[in-house]
Automatic annotation (TrEMBL):
Gene Ontology MF annotations: S-methyl-5-thioribose-1-phosphate isomerase activity
Reaction(s) this enzyme catalyzes, per UniProt: 5-(methylsulfanyl)-alpha-D-ribose 1-phosphate = 5-(methylsulfanyl)-D-ribulose 1-phosphate
Binding residues annotated for substrate, in chain numbering: 53-55, 90, 203, 254-255
GO biological process, one term: L-methionine salvage from methylthioadenosine
The encoding gene: mtnA
Organism from which the protein derives: Bradyrhizobium manausense
Protein name: Methylthioribose-1-phosphate isomerase
Chain positions of site Transition state stabilizer: 164
Catalytic center residues: 244
Annotated family: Belongs to the EIF-2B alpha/beta/delta subunits family. MtnA subfamily.
Function noted in UniProt: Catalyzes the interconversion of methylthioribose-1-phosphate (MTR-1-P) into methylthioribulose-1-phosphate (MTRu-1-P).
Pfam family name, one: IF-2B
């Protein structure tokens, strides 16, 4: 999307034709730094350390990681080593394994001498497919925002709450949860976004607020615990969040705290939507709460905060007493019963197995192979 009028994507192939550029999201919102990935290991570290993050972008980065690997060693052993290196970079977003499976399916059957070129071509397809899918999510989600407009007085603003960052920074472009928001904004609909800061890494405060602000979308950053109060007082017309993995039964895995927002939305009759591209559906998992692996990250993400001092320096400070144990669960799972609908590129679906299978039969078949 736009950064002060200039179009950007979150990841792209450098002009040299082989290295890969990605916005270093650990540096935002204070610095806009573009990192250059030149090896499979670079891609794996970028995913693990959250230089790039967000399920679809993790998948795109892994796809280019496989292409970088094929430049280094296109043998069968090299292909396996690259897959095994990248697939363990983070455990929860299914897009990582989906992208690697797609790359391996394209590369394993062909002559190793052809693999590097084929890998870049397939990775480019995955990148462009993400953008097209997210445009579809935008159009399908827009209908929900337009329905909200009809329920309000003329000229009133539609207030959307979102959690974490499921914006263009979490994908190649457009985002998932933010795609309908950007399209509504472009169509002149008066829209405002309540942005959950999303402790501990503050993807909302640091990334969602940054991208909405630089694209000109009205928004307000709120502490994570504010959403319930806003919903009780009719200040949220709908919630739209992203997801890292949707189980076949419609359970939704997303950033920690999503479940609590869904509970508040259910208690206040606020529509709670989840936006996702079909590669985020895991038809191999039938019970999200039981079977989706929840990443636990370093306690330093909880004990420390990084910010800009009054004189412009970036400083990291400790906010938890030395010696106090911390727990850092990066995701939780919202049961399907709390989800109003799943906004996909093929429409807004009920969060259940039959609806998901009917919309994406090819994904069901692939999971059964
Ligand atoms: C469109 S996927 C966005 C999804 O990914 C985020 O997790 P992380 O920042 O740890 O990669 C969060 O769960 C978002 O909803």
């Amino acid at each position: 999307m736009k950064v002060d009028g200039k179009h950007f994507r979150s990841i792209w192939r450098e002009r040299d034709g082989w290295s890969v550029c990605a916005i270093d999201q650990r540096r935002l919102p204070h610095e806009f730094v573009v990192a250059r990935l030149t090896s499979c290991e670079d891609a794996a570290v970028a995913i693990r350390d959250m230089l790039v993050r967000g399920a679809p972008l993790i998948g795109a980065t892994a796809a280019y990681g496989m292409a970088l690997a094929m430049r280094e060693d296109a043998s069968d052993a090299g292909l396996k080593r690259a897959y095994d290196t990248l697939v363990v970079a983070r455990p929860t977003a299914i897009n990582l394994k989906w992208a690697l499976d797609e790359m391996r399916a394209s590369l394993a059957p062909i002559d190793p001498v052809e693999r590097a070129e084929a890998a870049y071509a397939r990775a480019d397809e995955i990148v462009e497919q993400d953008v097209e899918i997210n445009r579809g999510i935008a159009g399908n989600g827009l209908k929900l925002i337009e329905a909200s407009v009809t329920r309000k007085k003329p000229g009133e603003t539609v207030n959307v709450l979102t959690h974490c960052n499921a914006g263009w920074l979490a994908t190649v472009d457009w985002g998932t949860a933010t795609a309908p928001i950007y399209l509504a904004h472009e169509r002149g609909i008066k829209i405002h976004v309540w942005v959950d800061e999303t402790r501990p890494r503050n993807q909302g405060a640091s990334l969602t607020a940054w991208e909405l602000g630089h694209h000109g979308v009205p928004h307000t950053v709120i502490p994570d615990n504010t959403g319930g109060h806003l919903m009780q007082h009719g200040m949220v017309d709908l919630a739209i969040v992203g997801t890292d993995r949707v189980a076949a039964n419609g359970d939704v895995c997303n950033k920690i705290g999503t479940y609590l927002k869904a509970l508040a939305a259910h208690d206040n009759n606020v529509p709670f939507y989840v936006a996702l591209p079909s590669p985020t559906i895991d038809f191999a998992v039938n019970d999200g709460i039981r079977d989706i692996p929840i990443e636990q990250r370093s306690g330093a993400e909880v004990t420390d905060m990084t910010g800009r001092t009054a004189d412009g320096r970036l400083e990291t400070v400790r906010i938890v007493p030395e010696g106090s144990p911390v727990a850092n669960y990066a995701f939780d799972v919202t049961p399907a019963r709390l989800v109003t609908g799943l906004i996909t590129e093929r429409g807004v679906l009920k969060p259940d197995r039959a609806s998901l299978a009917a919309a994406f039969p090819e994904r069901v078949a692939a999971a059964a192979e």
